[in-house]
Design brief:
heterodimer; A: 336 residues; mainly alpha; two-stranded antiparallel sheet; 2 strands; B: 281 residues
Chain lengths: 336, 281
Amino acid sequence: MNPQPNTPTPAAEYGALARRRSFRRSLSATGSTGDAVFRVLLLSVALLILLIVSSMVVAMAHNSMPSIREFGFSFLWGSNWDPVKGEFGALPFIYGTIVSSLIALVIAVPLSLGVAIFLVEQAPARLARPIAFLVELLAAIPSVVYGLWGIFVLAPVMREWVEPPLQRSLGFLPLFQGTITGIGLFTGGVILAIMITPIISAVVRDVLAAVPVSQREAALALGATKWETTRVVLANAASGIAGAIILGLGRAIGETMAVTMVIGNRPQISASLFEPSYTIASVIANEFTEATGDLYLSALVEIGLILFLVTFIVNGIAKLLVWSVTRGTSGTARAT
Amino acid sequence: MQASTPRRRNSRRTVNAVMTTLTAACAFFAVSILVVILGYIAMRGLTSINLQFLIDTPKPVGEGGGIGNAIVGSLVLLALGSVIGLPLGIAAGIYLAEFGDGWFGKTVRFVTDTLTGVPSIVIGVFVYTIIVLPQKQFSTWAGGVALALIMIPIVTRTTEEMIRLVPTSLREGALALGAPQWRVTLGVVLPAASTGIATGCMLAIARVSGETAPLLFTAFGSRFYNYYLDEPMASLTVQIYNYAISPYDEWHALAWAATLVLMTLILVINITVRIFTRKKF
């Protein structure tokens, strides 16, 4: 038989086959075509998610270009927000977001730590389970419902019962001066505190549950009281707790509806916590549909982009911290 | 500790008692906030809800009006979000659980986590720029996509966790019988994890059913029954928001009634999931 010039030599054929095989094997272990298709389908979905998140950054950056070109970095520290004159500075919103989130943390951190410690270290399982579920339900209430409740229940309560005593006792501080309306930074912070408490306490619960029992047994064996033992556990879980708090901060920064409904929505920077303010998320919610003109719209998109980047960084830090404590234990481990 | 005097031991006991009481008080306080909020919603909602309210469309002040179109709109938006979001989320979850150990899997997992943390208002801005802006129109599509984007990371992570819980021996058994991997995953592993995955999907639906911010400038809202996906669509949450910030007492009452409907939906889903998972584990 004469080897025809067009037919591949056995060696070349074998090489091609081997290459094909190894390609298939790289797709799946068993080497069937069905597996290859299956894997490629799943892979394309995973790629789609990457594509979505990256296009998020690209689309928002692209649409905020007019504003970035016009204002540059002065956008961040300009304190004038005047759509009519075409002046856009985001500082009042950044201030409102930071201060309302800090108020939320000051209230929510001790509260959530208390809840988590009670559930993991003290309550018997029979009691801990239902309480944990009820606290988690707080996270299931939608933001707009918190807002509604904030307007009609919390704000009047703050106006009548909380803010006047604060002003009487601490009124020498600029923080607690000014007119009391019940609508403002302080009420916004309180509603945020209620909203992030279930989140922080759930993560702290996971973190505390991840501390080895031997730590507790060692402390108890040395004669420590229940609370002293808890302090040992807390010290062990410190970085995870920090992570949980930062996670709550990330949530507070991005929270929109409830804050928008009780914070007063006035772009000003005032030392008083009782004065109306404005947050990054609420200015987007309020003005986006009314934004006339490219510059106005792109300024709002740029604010959205800033919010995206800030929450991205904050959540990244939080995840690293939580992971440093809970790694090795199952992510779903719960104390209940 | 032996050296501690009775007085010192006493103060340690006191601190212990005080702190134990304080933590219990924190838990009690958190639960009582929930009770107060839910109780108030029930009280205000029940006084202004009736059948007509559940069917009517919004009307001008003084003429009553209802949330019929908003209920339908919310259901349409949820369905649309689920149709887009659940398959993608489940597929990505399967990918991460079965093939996601390399650097690419780690990247996808990280990016999915990032998506979880993105504020929902930012999702709204994003969908506005990619769908509403080119089409020059608010649409149900845009709202559905926004909700799907919020559901995807929740479903992905739950699916991954649930599939990882399926024992390896089950996979090995099926593989040893000669089944290709795709049949093992779809026919053996997925059914074994189905309850957990369904739980994740339900929770994702419950979560987005309360979303307002991403709908404000995607689905936008509407005062009529609407059956077209390329037109603005009403939703319960946006309707509640519009009623709540209005200056009219009558509309405030409507807001509470609509909230009662919304909260009932959300609580039913959450409690169902709770009962299901308790039976399972």
